[in-house]
Write a structure and sequence with these properties.
Oligomer: homohexamer
CATH topology of the largest domain in chain A: Rossmann fold
CATH architecture of the largest domain in chain A: 3-Layer(aba) Sandwich
Distance between the termini of chain A: 8 Å
Number of domains of chain A: 2
Structural class of chain A: alpha/beta
Largest sheet of chain A: 4 strands, parallel
Chain lengths: ~220, ~220, ~220, ~220, ~220, ~220
């Protein structure tokens, strides 16, 4: 199976991190990652998201030409998901969408821990419009910028672990969803720190891609 | 106020029809219409919608340069609304969205009469994700193609009137929403034929644009 | 266009304040304000709201006789909206309803900042029954009484600005809705203080009234 | 327990029929019925409902003076429920509301069979705003006027039985809710004809009134 | 009327406490309580709930043989409600379900105060799936274990009163629902302490049982 | 991966059919199927479902002992899903749940075609409580009994194809979900007949099981 992650932002290191996590989650697939060089360096809020859509759409003909079997939008905001899905020759899922479905299929009510407050309305709006409002307790901002998250310093990890612990103690949940593509590689250390079930949309999307496409 | 209608499809006559209706609804505004020449000739289903997004996004810098005060996406599917809104320098509304808000503010439960069945899931999904599921009885396909609707032959008018009458007798509604930009100019004749309150998203969007932007 | 604001409470200064804001928002309309002298001095909670309905309904024949084109219920609780709408000869909207539609059409997820805690369930119930549950983060009580708000002392402004700032930092929103008719005249100063997009239902209702009625 | 049914319409025979059904459902209560002589002869659509609210509200002081323990609004539209509840000194329920809660507590997904199509949006709106959208399959109009239903001729019974049978065969339900106060006395004969579980809001409200008030 | 409370957990003192509250709420009924000796000593989280279902189902033939008229699942999680209802010969309600319906019929938006955080997702999930998401502000954990609640020490009462007071001051509600069968007997003292309307599902279920079954 | 299908009904041929479809969908897994010999021969309506839960729960210790990695409830009603999930040592999904998630992740609005009308409220209730009400157009009964479906005669296939064609022409959908475990093996022939995207919960659950469990 040829699985393509399209990173809507232009930060190549984020694409590489996403591909590494996806390959670990689905070793038998041929996972590739494309960076949207026309996008903003990070997607923080709806303006950044919108600025990324055209560049992502422009990559679809090449994806079709390469015979890609499934496309994943590698931004937790699922930016442009409906439009990209409509334009693509194959199934398209978003890492936010994948994370929500994974938490629900595992039987958990969840909170999301994301980066800046500017992303909270986008994510909360997605949760509501997908129909998962009854499964989601809260969308929480850590106050960390996307690129800070991507760097993964000890201070960043501590801040995320702290917010996850707050979610666990205050929100009445069974799992926390990591609300940024850049958090995917931090899942093991955060799970060790917090002891809570954590769901990452990058690994989830890889696994769902195989579920959708087979074999 | 400078009000810009962007027609996501490439059919110039539809743009012209939309602009005429908008100007009649809001004579004091400076209404212009741009056609997305990179789009499909009509938007029938999600693939067509997606194929239109990049072209619409590409028009935004010019819209900003022209000092446009509000942008309306002139397709009832509200294609790319979230993304275009995020990228724009001014408020952006869709004609589907505008029609639903108008029906609700007028106090009516409504059904939608649209073109082909392929558009029903797109519209029904929008209604649900906007939160208007409790206000909408049914989304009905007339079986007419978008360009047939745009031509507005007597047979087309008869078919639409028939479907509106079915909605009135079967759906328990107070208003019918015309579910295609091309139906806007047919509203007077359809109202005469059916006697039901009809809501058209083109006129609604012009009026809401002024409400959002003022004065 | 003849636009009538009916203040369900008996405080004439609030009616005057509402009319002033509405006229500023819609200078070309003939805006009048009627006070329900049979209502309580302020509407704080469902009992006050109910005590006001009969008096408002009793004003409808005169409104019809005056040839009013649109009626606005000038209480953020939208008290009696469904019933008044049913009895009126023209469209009827509420300032709460108008504020929610305005925030949503502008593309914002929002929180509401209102007066006393006793009004929170009324407003939250309205938000849910209108279908805007997925767009509204939280309804917040400032602890201020309606008539305190109407006086608009520096302490009142400081308290409101503080609660708006809390909403901005904690709720993940793009706009705050001012949840009391008496806050309408404070919008400019509160916007200067907070920097957040603020939505006031009095101005919103004036603009929507014109959108509904035209031209 | 003193239980008061307020019939929002001015047809005394309907009040008497409602009281008879309520007394049969709750023999130990002191059930009285008041007719709103200021209301329309029947409530068919939102205008009629609104025209009835002021008259009902005007009866509340007398109800308080009589020491009534619970008030039931004896119209399936639950007209003015929120406002009357706010103004009353005791719990207030509507017969529509009571019927929906009864069907749900009995574990049934249901359809409603009501009178004219003009009442369908009111009832469907109530169902949605109460949160029962997921429990209700359809609101069906029988095409019968309220006063025809109240007369209960053989033709009326046949028409209702026919619509209930359609609901059973097409809607995938476990119960049908009788969507008009005037159908309450027809429940036994309709149950014999159809074999389906039928829920009547008059009897349901009497029983819930006792549940709310005790002992 | 023969009314059977089935306590899904194996703690006999809880069964006895529940029966005492139900008898006080419905003195004319013949109330019995059965303990599921195959269940866990307390139901704290979904695992405990699931471990209790088979034992409860095994009691149904005896309930039928005894001619029971209505069964109440005496755990606030309503564990196994759908399945037990399907298998039973008579109506089945849960005390959580009953409490939510009671608060709604009384006209209140509510918060729930329960025991441990592990029960919050179960209760919040029930609220959402029943359709009461728009009526419920928050599900709050007191941090008390079920058996601590059952003992009802002064410290327990103080903790519950404190959490109820927080709900009243922060959640914008008209009533608090006591979210554990073991809190039923504490209702009078908690009401005296807090002054808020409190709803207990044990008494509510007894009263609704009579409403469902009659006479 | 050890994947266990538990058939809640006692018809061994249905278990065998389900296992065959699951193995074809996930050849690398070790798929086994257990039949609930204490269940009814087919699950048609809530009573049958409830009668099956205890027997399914009784199989869980053996499943744990066998080291099963994921359990699938092989009945489209997802009978007992919440309870079985709570009691199990590993993830548990239902074939109805899996089918809905699959349709949604593929981007389709869907209708369900099931067996008898008695199953419609169960399935529609599940759809609503899972949050997929906005994605599902209609739950349709074919009028076929479960065991008729399992036999798969030409007349049965013709009836199912007819109902799927009705769903396609009337419901405005992108996919039809096969609403019975016994339909899984008929998917290829039905797809050939109808040309519509069809989703079967047995194959979907096998693929999701791998997504949840890995590797």
């Amino acid at each position: 199976m040829r699985l393509l992650y399209i990173n809507p932002n232009s930060t190549v290191s984020m694409t590489e991190g996403v591909v590494a996590v996806a390959r670990a989650a689905l070793p038998e697939a041929e996972v590739t990652g494309w960076t949207n060089h026309d996008g903003p360096p990070a997607i923080q809020g709806p303006e950044d998201g919108a600025a990324a859509v055209a560049g992502v759409l422009a990559l679809l003909p090449a994806a079709r030409h390469e015979g890609v079997d499934c496309i994943v939008i590698a931004c937790f905001d699922d930016t442009g998901l409906a439009e990209i899905r409509g334009a693509a020759h194959c199934p398209v899922i978003g890492i936010g969408q994948a994370a929500f479905h994974m938490a629900v299929l595992l039987g958990h009510r969840f909170s999301v821990v994301t980066t800046l407050a500017v992303s909270v309305p986008v994510i909360a709006g997605n949760v509501a419009s997908y129909g998962f409002g009854g499964h989601c307790a809260k969308v929480r901002a850590s106050g960390l910028r996307v690129l800070e998250v991507d760097e993964g310093s000890p201070a960043t990890i501590a801040r995320l672990a702290e917010e996850i612990a707050l979610a666990e103690s205050q929100d009445g949940i069974g799992a926390a969803v990591l609300g940024c593509a850049g958090m995917a590689s931090l899942l093991p250390v955060l799970r060790d720190r917090t002891g809570l079930v954590l769901v990452d949309g990058v690994a989830a999307s890889a696994r769902f891609a195989r579920a959708l496409v087979g074999p």
